[in-house]
Sequence to fold (282 residues):
Amino acid sequence: MDNLRIILNKVNQLDPIPVVIHKVLELADDPEASLPDLVEVVERDPAITANLLKTVNSAYMGLPVKVDSVHQAVSMLGLQQVVEMVMSQNLSGNLNRAQKGYGLEKGALWRQSLAVAMVARTLAGQQDLMSLPAIYTAALLKDIGKVVLHEFVADKLSSIQKVVTDQAMSFVEAEKEVLGMDHMMLGGIIAKQWNFSSHMVYMIENHHLPNTAARNDPATSTLYLADMIAMMVDTGIGVDRLAYHVYQGVFSDFFPDKQQIKGLMITYKAYRREVHEFLEAA
Fold:
């Protein structure tokens, strides 16, 4: 119990989410919202506006003309891409840190989170799912619990790995067994504290599909599959690597042809390169 109290107290040490992020997500998911509505919200925050225009005008974007306003950026790039840029530029603070308990150097979790979010958005589009901005953002934040839990994982890593090996548990199940808390649960607590929507919270706290309900939720399954694709490619990144359950039924529902999985792995590699260029430009 004391350990849980210490873990939960650490949540309050995370950098807060800018208020404008919630309004941007709300507008992005509102079919009645207009582009001027989004422009108005973004322009209320000078720092977010400046960062957005800096990236839009970077060599990475390669636009033929200089963009001088948020309105011009939205007109040229579209709402979805601008929303993704705003999210990607303003959610990095916590995830960009080293997560030593998980064997992740500074920036590793954030780079992978960005690429996974791009895969999740691609998958969601292929499945004609709604709420693409919410799915993209949930994919960015799915491992936010690791930011707090990593130091506790570091202290008990050998015990967690022993449970994984001896009891055939996934890494996240072993976290719960040893620590009384896992990074999914903690991510859900953080997302709730940050006032994200109930479905965003659900996706984050269930992204490893711990139950049948989660496996039957297309948006949450999208996060799981994007994450698994990343782990299949980045097999040497992080101590948890592929220590998670593979749900063949979910894979089969999304990928009737196994060649689609290989294609998405290639897409993930391309997104990793894009992420490197994006961060260089930021």
Summary: The chain has two domains: 18-90, 92-281. The longest helix spans residues 259-281. Residues 23 and 245 are 35 Å apart (CA to CA). The chain is about 70% helix and 0% strand.
